[in-house]
């Protein structure tokens, strides 16, 4: 079956044509060090957004130096890290590939970083792509035909895989084989091409949208949670060290607590504070600089930006605190439902400002308190908080 002409990945089989072959090893869309874009930018998000980890900022590309390369540098998420470190050591001792790994968590918490860390710890190749880049089965085939023994193959936004690609991936994950079709029409037949054992690392911000057959093929699942204050402080100090900027402990603590438990946000805020410090205080980041900087950026003590406060205010002022359905709310704030659910709500919920209930979204008494608003006495129970 050396003749690659007429080879078609089986899952791309089209009854009418049997589409033409990928020409040998199709070049993978993205491999090696370069990552494809992360999550899509929320349609209505301000491009100047600092605390929204999903908004790609140009300077994040210079973030590579801040990205931890080994588990030891990867701060926080202690329980997850400990287990992972055991699984990695065991796989290395057995000289086997690590089981497929599923990473779940909101943007900016370190999923891509961890995938790269795993490859470094295992000492194997790292290949990167994201589900939207895998348009045709040949795109996936192109990457799978280049994996070497133990390669860590990272697919970002795995909830966006097309069904044909997903089917092909099942076989690759389970049997380490590529399903191909030779020929066309009635005489077409399927062959399987072996590929070396590899580790698929799939990352998603929306675990609920990943099909159960795919989930069941991952041997290890890591769920990221927002980082604790102490871990965030450690991350700020580490990044300040790498950026060679001096920072007081109480200033680092304030950046940490204003960063929504999200390392990407902490790194961005740190860079902004470095700018303010350069102009205001000869480059040293003191608590005063951070307080002033946060004020100028309109970021409050919980790390909310003006837009987050707008969402809460709309629920309070237009819907009397809720409940209001996600779709109605999304229209009111001028966002897509997905964006609202994926990017804005998780932290508002985590911070105890918003609740998802079966009847819709509701703000909590803490939201009124935080925004310094009183509950309307026409409300459901007419109580003032
Ligand atoms: N545990 C950590 N310790 C130190 N820094 C971290 C950690 N996790 C993430 N970071 C920093 O945060 C940045 C964002 O992390 P990363 O890009 O891995 O997030 P992500 O979960 O993949 O986000 P997205 O869902 O948007 O793709 C990294 O560049 C890195 O500098
Ligand atoms: Mg990522």
Looking across the biggest beta sheet, what order are the strands in? 3-4-7-2-8
Task: Kindly provide the name of the CATH class of the largest domain.
Answer: Alpha Beta
* Beta-strand percentage range: 5-15%
Q: Tell how many strands the DSSP assignment holds.
A: 10
Instruction: Write down the overall mean pLDDT.
Output: 85
How far apart are the first and last residues' alpha carbons, in Å?
75 Å
The CATH topology of the largest domain is what?
Answer: Rossmann fold
Describe the global form.
globular
The number of distinct structural domains comes to 3
- Are there runs of 5+ residues with pLDDT below 50, and where? 1-7, 11-48, 379-385
Q: Give every kind of bound small molecule, once each.
A: adenosine-5'-triphosphate, magnesium ion
Query: Considering DSSP H and I runs of 4 or more, what fraction of the residues is helical?
Result: 25-40%
Protein structure class: alpha/beta
- Radius of gyration (CA) equals 24 Å
What is the architecture of the largest domain at the second tier of CATH? 3-Layer(aba) Sandwich
Describe it.
- With 385 residues, the protein is of the alpha/beta class.
- The protein folds into three domains: 7-223, 3-Layer(aba) Sandwich (Rossmann fold); 229-296, Helicase, Ruva Protein, domain 3 (Orthogonal Bundle); 306-371, Winged helix-like DNA-binding domain superfamily/Winged helix DNA-binding domain (Arc Repressor Mutant, subunit A).
- It is built from 13 helices and ten strands.
- Helix 6 packs across helix 8 (263-280).
- Bound molecules: adenosine-5'-triphosphate and magnesium ion.
- Magnesium ion binds next to helix 2.
């Amino acid at each position: 079956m050396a003749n690659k002409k007429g080879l078609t990945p089986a899952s791309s089989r089209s009854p009418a044509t049997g589409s033409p072959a990928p020409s040998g090893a199709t070049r993978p869309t993205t491999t090696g060090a370069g990552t494809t874009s992360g999550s899509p930018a929320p349609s209505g998000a301000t491009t100047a957004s600092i605390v929204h980890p999903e908004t790609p900022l140009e300077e994040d590309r210079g973030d590579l130096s801040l990205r931890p390369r080994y588990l030891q540098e990867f701060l926080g998420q202690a329980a997850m890290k400990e287990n992972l470190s055991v699984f990695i050591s065991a796989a290395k001792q057995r000289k086997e590939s690590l089981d497929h790994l599923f990473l779940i968590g909101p943007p900016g918490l370190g999923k891509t970083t961890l995938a790269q860390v795993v490859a470094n710890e295992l000492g194997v190749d790292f290949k990167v792509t994201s589900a939207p880049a895998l348009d045709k089965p040949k795109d996936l085939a192109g990457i799978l035909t280049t994996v070497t023994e133990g390669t860590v193959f990272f697919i970002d936004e795995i909830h966006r895989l097309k069904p044909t690609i997903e089917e092909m991936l099942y076989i690759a994950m389970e049997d380490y084989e590529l399903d191909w079709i030779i020929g066309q029409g009635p005489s077409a037949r399927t062959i399987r091409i072996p590929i070396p054992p590899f580790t698929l690392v799939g990352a998603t911000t929306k675990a609920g949208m990943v099909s159960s057959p795919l989930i069941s093929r991952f041997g290890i699942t890591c769920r990221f949670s927002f980082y604790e204050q102490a871990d965030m402080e450690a991350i700020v100090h580490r990044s300040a060290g790498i950026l060679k900027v001096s920072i007081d402990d109480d200033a680092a603590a304030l950046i940490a607590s204003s960063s929504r438990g999200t390392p990407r946000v902490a790194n961005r805020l740190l860079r902004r504070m470095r700018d303010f410090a350069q102009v205001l205080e000869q480059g040293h980041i003191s608590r005063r600089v951070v307080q002033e900087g946060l004020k100028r950026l309109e970021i409050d003590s919980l790390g909310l930006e003006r837009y987050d406060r707008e969402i809460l205010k709309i629920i309070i002022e237009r819907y009397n605190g809720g409940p209001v359905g996600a779709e109605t709310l999304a229209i009111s704030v001028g966002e897509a439902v997905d964006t609202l659910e994926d990017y804005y709500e998780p932290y508002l919920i985590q911070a105890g400002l918003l609740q998802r209930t079966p009847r819709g979204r509701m703000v909590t008494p803490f939201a009124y308190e935080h925004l310094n608003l009183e509950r309307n006495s026409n409300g459901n129970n007419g109580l003032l908080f």
